[in-house]
Amino acid sequence: MWQPDRETIERGELERLQLARVRENIARIAAHNPAYHQKLGCPQPDSISDLRTLQQLPLLTKADLRAAYPFGLACVPQKDFARMQMSSGTTGKPVLCPYTRSDIAQWAETMARCYTAAGVTRDDVIQITPSFGLPNGGFGFHFGAEAIGAFYIPIGPGRTLLQLQLMQDLGATVLTAIATYPIRLIEAAREDNFDFRKTKLRVGIFGSEMWSDELRKKIQADMGIETFDIIGMTETGGVGMGIDCAAHHGVHIWQDHYLVEIVDPKTGVVMDDGREGELVVTTLTRQALPLLRFRTGDITRILSRERCECGRTHLRVDRFKGRTDDMIVYKGVNFYPSQIETLLLRQDGVAADYQIILGCDERGNETMEIIVETAVALSAEQQARIRRELYDYAGLSVAPQFVKVGELPRAPGKAVRVIDKRHS
User: Fold this and answer.
1) pTM of the full predicted structure?
2) Which pLDDT value is given to residue 92?
């Protein structure tokens, strides 16, 4: 462990620490941003008698952060900013997230914990493929690598053949990436007769987008590595909010820095452990942009608050199923793309890329195409089984179209799984 005393802290002590830090956050907001404090309903630090009392405060949304552009929710003067990152989004004003020097140190600390939980040490060579621009990903992996003292290769995204060359020539042992990028590397390796098993690569740390257990199995089998699911978002401080350990029984969230709740996406009511809902995050140690009860949009559930077999006491959430805005409603059927991915990738011969295209015919009736890449031609029996399982497990009556690997367009960043033309 990177910080054994903090990562194995007893539950009672951890909750007392969280409560103290929530109160400190409220005091900070009240002192440095009265408008923000008013938006929260003007709570006083001592009005939060226990962690459950926090549920009385309103939920904060991404729309609230956009409305505060550029730094309307900041709680330190701009002269104390050390840097900023920008949250990705497709509409409206961007969300700018400032950091103080202390915030950067906290980011490095949680990332160092994540690396260590994945078995990464100063003796490793870390290949960092996420972007080093306004998005946060590359920088989080960079700060963590510096904290543990490892040699790292800050190559960033794209340049796939160079990625493979440096992986081989520099002896990379750890690969960090958005979750679907390893599939691009696997495709390029196949075309270039590159064998990952002849490299020193042993660990993959992937996140930033939903990736199913089936995709995880495929990446591990094709690359010969152990993978770890890392979570985090720019709004709450960046990648490194949590990671699964070597036990792979859920994603640990660093609770001395983040307080999490699961709420009903429709009502906002807090849900019991074990029930699936939307992840809500309260940051506990951020100075520049402290957030209370921020709705992340990520769908998960709390798996356990008990000590993990790895020894850590920080709670574990399930791997993210999707996002609240990912849910597709088609002819009255609700489903997530992750359900389709899981169903497809467990079939022999199916490759990792697929696309769901929604539209309307000339009479206004909804239509759906599912285009699936396959490594080999599927038999009529296999195709029929996939169609049957789409109906049995997702309630979808659709005949997928099967194409060769490489026929679907490749996005430069996150994979585009759904194209919805119904309202265009």
Assistant:
1) 0.87
2) 66
